[in-house]
Amino acid sequence: MRKVQSTPWWWAAAGIVALFVVGALVPLPPLAWAAGIAYLVVSSLLVSLGLRRRGATRFGAANAVTATRSMLVGVATALVVASVGGEASTALLVGIVAVALALDGVDGYVARRTGSVSELGARFDMEVDAFLLLVLSVYDARVVGWWVLAIGLMRYAFVVVAWLVPWFDRTLPYRYWRKVVTAACGVALTVVATQLLPPPANVLVAAAALGLLVESFGRDVVWLIRMNRADTDYVSPQEALTRDSDGARDESR
């Protein structure tokens, strides 16, 4: 019987240790501690459930890189919550986020080099990216206005619509452009967080990021509407190849 690999909780533990280190540098109120720890525990639990559901036998190096990014996002979450009460270090937050953004392309590279590309890994990576954008947009709201929250909430609004509208829950075709837009939004929001640019420039950078995200999500929405009107199901290239092979075998019998 194949043994299922449970999620290593090391990144949650490491994240909590990192919170203690950050707390020694910057005062973290109880709510900030709670937010950071809650993110670390919940994300670890969700990945663990995903591994068990898919019967995965190993966590993998690529997922370990994504987990490291997730740990950094947990610390960034605590710092952003602390900033609501005025207790925050912009330089520390930007430094942590910069490392998380730099690692964004590493997990995919490692997955391809080790032949460990998986649906769970891609989903894990995507959700870490989405939550990081949400955290950054919350921090930037005080710099450019609350409208910037649209960047962080757009992914979650898409998920809610998919729950309410069945045909919205189709599997989307792969587009590398989504990854580019997500990375660009992360960089833009980090630049705004530094507050090194003049106020009008901060607004322009954030607005450009929002425009890119609207274009990316809009393209997916248009595709979903077209598929719904055509009443067809999306078939991945791999599944299509399998179906063609099965059909060829049937014809040869």
H/E topology pattern: HHHHHHHHHH
- Give the uncertain stretches in residue-range form: 1-6, 234-253
Strand-residue proportion: under 5%
What is the CATH domain class? Mainly Alpha
Note the total helix count.
10
Reconstruct the topology from this structure.
Elements (H helix, E strand, L loop, with lengths): L9 H16 L4 H25 L6 H24 L5 H13 L1 H10 L5 H26 L4 H16 L11 H19 L4 H32 L6 H16 L1
Question: Which features does this protein show?
Answer:
single chain, 10 helices, disordered N terminus, disordered C terminus, mainly alpha, 253 residues, 78% helix, Four Helix Bundle (Hemerythrin (Met), subunit A)
Fold and architecture overview:
With 253 residues, the chain is mainly α. It has a single domain, classed as Four Helix Bundle (Hemerythrin (Met), subunit A) (Up-down Bundle). It is 78% helix and 0% strand. The chain contains 10 helices and no strands. It has helices at residues 10-25, 30-54, 61-84, 90-102, 104-113, 119-144, 149-164, 176-194, 199-230, 237-252. It starts with 9 loop residues before the first helix and ends with a helix.
